[in-house]
Specification:
With about 525 residues, the protein is α/β, with parallel strands linked by helices. About 35% of the residues lie in helices and about 15% in strands. The longest helix is centred in the last third of the chain and has 20 residues.
Amino acid sequence: MKILTASEMRAVDRLTTDRYGVASLDLMHHAGAAVATFVLREFPACRHIAVLCGKGNNGGDGFVAARKLAEMGCAVQVVLLGDPADLKGDAKAAFDEMNLTPVVALDETALDPHGTQHLLESADLIIDAVVGTGFKPPLRGVAAALRDRVNALEIPVVAVDLPSGWDSDSRSFSAEGAFRANAVVTFTAPKLAHMFGNLTGSAMGPIVVAPIGSPEEAIQSATNLAWAGSSKALTEQPRTPDSNKGLYGHVLVVAGGRGKSGAPAMASLAALRAGAGLVTAAVPQSILPLVAGITPELMTFPLREGPSGEVDRSNLEPDQLSRITERATVIAMGPGMGTEPEAFVLGLIAKTTLPLVIDADALNILAKHPDRIDGRGRTVVLTPHPGEMARLAGVGTKEVQASREPLAREFATRHNVTVVLKGWRSLIAHPDGRIAINTTGNPGMAKGGSGDILTGIVAALLAQYPDHPGEAVEAAVYLHGLAADFALREQDEHTLLATDTIGHLFRAFHFRSRDEAGYVWVEGIPSSPARPK
């Protein structure tokens, strides 16, 4: 699913009407109906609804939503920011069709005090349809005054397209001066602000995209950005009845060191749970019993140790290396290794042509040898957190965080690798310059072990879908965060452990981001997510 700017969204709407013959008023009808349906489904107890409408097309969507909700038995009060006589075009047509009375019309320069506060306080839910994606902040006059009143209340707010007062093209995490929102219903495709901003004030969302009639051919974007969740479709085809473990790849996890058995154990267990046909953990001999004990399905291989319990370079001897890698189809390397086995890590990269997932200490070793970072001829995935990315790129962590998108893209294209830059809205930057943005996950994942588990999931999906490496990596990142979101429903951000996500991977695989009503959940989970039929 492409990510659009505000101007690109306007172009999609024009093209939908001019080339594909879908009337603009029909688009408005579909948008307003989508908002109404979402409200009734996700907030079923809210029957007294205040709809705040501006004079533009965003307000027109609100007029349609108000009419639909009234037809479905809700008590609806419409507040228009301005004079009804000033309405034009589709917004005027939607207002006339609404035929609801009374409509509270507010003066555009000052909030009318008569009854407005009571109207808001008596509502169960507020729909914010004041201004949409074409608006450039800040809000002024009555819109700003109304925002302050709404933001002081505790009742839920559903935003139409995006919270009023937020710049649709913003890449900022947060913005002062906008309406708050408990949910956002946008249309056709997500916009930049939906991807980069914390629009709802919660990492759980939701933000949903509703189809309103624009054909896929009309949706064009020059951002070269996409939503990572679209790639989960790769994992949603059932396995064939005559499946066998050989069809789903063999992940080799090369990791660990003395006192660090947890990292390879977590990566290996995650790879098994994510569907790899076989998983072997190649770890130093001294920690092998601990790693093997994580689950009986895991195979192990003892690696020769150096004096500090690290992986010894003698494992690169041809006969030994052949035994280590002979059955593998994907190698995941780095978690818990320490930086002592530098010669082994560099040698393994040089002596094998298998797809690689490189994380943790292996990244820090590579950072000292940037000339060895080369993905030509095979799939190489690097999964750095911002500190590791800073070392790889030779810059400061603050610089990474200030320019995540261009830095990840430049690094990926220069080295012919896929970079998973972790953090808020993890980025998956591909060698061809494309970037996918992930919207799942939560602050509870900020714990040791989360990266090890991601490494295992990425390796498992690469093993299962070798012909679609880019989508496999995107799907892995999305599934990892989604499993953590499901885990948080039963946990608290403080108590959530990295291993809790593994236990909820099955829910992430079951989940369909496009639900039965056609909404695409780009952030958050429905109140009662349905399992596939």
